[in-house]
Amino acid sequence: MLKNLPLARPLLGPQEERAVCEVLRTRWLVQGPRVAAFEESVRRFAGVKHAVALSSCTSALYLCLRAAGIGPEDDVIVPAFTFVATANSVVHAGAEPVFSDIDLATFNLSPNALAQTLERCYQRRGRRLRNRSTGRTLRLLLVVHQFGLAAEMDALRRIARRFDVKILEDAACALGTRSGGRHVGRTGIAGCLSFHPRKSITTGEGGMVLTDDRSLAEQVRMLRDHGAALSDHERHSKGVMSLPDYPLSGFNSRMTDLQGAIGVEQMKRLPELLRRRARLARRYQELLKGMGGLVAPAQRPPSHTWQSFVVRFPEGRDRCERVARVLRDQGIATRPGTHAVPWLKAFDERAAKDRPFCPNSLEAERTSMALPLFAEMSFGDVDRVCRALRGALS
Prior knowledge:
By secondary structure, the chain is an alpha/beta fold. The protein has two domains: 14-266, Aspartate Aminotransferase, domain 2 (3-Layer(aba) Sandwich), CATH 3.40.640; 270-393, Aspartate Aminotransferase, domain 1 (Alpha-Beta Complex), CATH 3.90.1150.10. The protein has helices spanning 14-26, 33-46, 57-67, 84-92, 111-121, 153-162, 214-224, 232-238, 257-288, 317-329, 359-367, 379-393, and strands at residues 50-54, 74-79, 96-100, 122-125, 128-131, 137-144, 166-170, 178-179, 182-183, 190-194, 207-211, 309-312, 368-371.
């Protein structure tokens, strides 16, 4: 057992070290053959037609919004309880985030709250929904699969179809999560993954777009590389000595081949990493069953990959903070689940109108706690956390 239990710890070994050294010896460091191999590995695993690697999941979300034509005249509905990057990507695309509340049991966007948001904020004009206050068009619903649990995609898809609204899936935490027998990210125009060290696999930083839409994939590939029609690797492979054309004005959101090499090795580990996380989550659920003052997370296997194990303390923030201090003193790291974004300073003015209608999101931020969960943990580590919780609550 570990003396000090961190919240998360990526599993890296000699395979990743060798892969990085091989890239260093080739001297091809930026978006080359290793990135292409990583993309293909994820594409096959997820069962999608296209996978496009990027520098982060935030870049993936932003470039998908750009490729979908989202801009200053548009609204995008965003869950009010999510990592700030979800909303930031909308702002940077020039659109306006409209926040909708979550289901406290799942931490995911509530279809009922979404229906109320649509009724409160929008009126129908032709096939489109227009914001009653600003006149902007609702073009897209940004769905988050929070902590690795699949959102209620059937219900959300029905609402989106009724109002001719596209869906983009923030699947940052959800590599391996399936919904309706398919990997998440295939209900809407695309799904966006993260490879941050707290995720199931890591490349340090990094992200990927999953999509069955060839046109969108091609646009994202160009946008990530300054708008170039050909990547450097493609250009060198073809023996073309001239500079590529630039049909789009793009960005530098490329993944390095160092990251791609790590990703290839991490994908080999993924099935076992997911099995370990599921076993640890089941152990948590068994030991926390019936523990007063604590609500364990919802279980929906196989639609949960347990990127985080997030509990709630319904008595409120004071109880949550007292428990966190007790665990900290015993060498056990914790943190709040994530943000209630409309209450963050960066969104003070633009989100004020949405706050009264997102009580569950504020409650989730104030009462949630992520417990340690990573592949190298043992059942003994889980037992230790649960003993500390029981003592803190008693």
